[in-house]
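Hi L.,

As promised, Coiled-coil domain-containing protein 72:
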Amino acid sequence: MSGREGGKKKPLKAPKKTSKELDDDDLALKQKLKEQQKALQDAKAKATQKGPLTQGGIKKSGKK
């Protein structure tokens, strides 16, 4: 029996990724997504500055 029998096989290497050229539509889409992401980050920052929206839920009266 050799040492390689029944053992783990070495995984194949993944092929190298080819760099594809971006056309104007792809560049416009990337720019639009980047702007949307920035707007979302700004909105999150504004929302955290103002504090919580609710003030404690159900208000109870002092009467019984």
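Residues 55 and 61 are 15 Å apart (CA to CA).

Thanks again for sending the construct details.

K.
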